[in-house]
Amino acid sequence: MTNDDKGTAAGGLDVQLAAELIEKAKAEGVSLVGPDGLLAGVTRTVLQAALEAEMTDHLGYDKGERPARPTGNHRNGTSAKTVSTEVGPVRVEVPRDRRGGFEPQIVPKHARRIEGFDESIISLYAKGLTTGEIRAHLAEIYQVEVSRDLISRVTDKVVEEMEAWRARPLDGVYPVVLIDAIYVKIREGQVANRPIYVALGINCHGERDVLGLWVGTGGEGAKHWMTVLAELRNRGVADVCIACCDCEDHGVLSQAAA
């Protein structure tokens, strides 16, 4: 990034604006909990994907498909529901079937609070977990005994949603990108604390968006950050005015960006 004599960054960004945005980002940090928190958004997507997969398991055919033979039952809209979780209130659309026999397991009928959605849920969205690790984590979230087929179906749906989220196009310009690490428990045979690196972009309107999540091992080098930066560039990011990160990562991040 270079500045011209008028105090604008590459791409015509006002450096003073970028400075104001970065101060705001430092003050607010990465919000994890609450209605607009990172974890609430991730939890909502996981719950919604699981509910759709459960309905598919119940009916025997996927959304938009036709059954192999008529069953007299089909999807019949949704009902909005807000449930309390460890990360705050989460609103979901619970699918209904025509016969009214669908009994969701991950968000049971009449339940207003569900457990199992703490900070470790964010690991599902970070690159680096195997499908088996995701499946094991989802199995722990369910509070009742469910079939392996259902867990596999839910895993496939969640992975599909995650891949779409990871590959979504990004803005071309971000005045500020804040990179931080959140340590969460991830099961790898045994439970271990591992860093989840969060890239939080702030656009020219001051709106914040999580650009990506990546599982690390701690002490990531320039090669790791080159991969992260290349991914952001491939998804459309052409210019960043200021990148703010932990001091420990500053050197290797600068080396990767060089």
UniProtKB/TrEMBL annotation:
One of its GO terms (biological process) is DNA transposition. The keyword DNA-binding applies. It comes from the Bacteria. Residues 60-85 are annotated as: Disordered. Residues 73-85 have a biased composition (Polar residues). GO terms for molecular function: DNA binding; transposase activity. The keyword Cell division does not apply. Keywords: DNA recombination, DNA-binding, Transposable element, Transposition. It holds the Pfam family Transposase_mut. InterPro entries: Transposase_mutator. Belongs to the transposase mutator family. Required for the transposition of the insertion element. This is Mutator family transposase. It comes from Actinomadura darangshiensis.
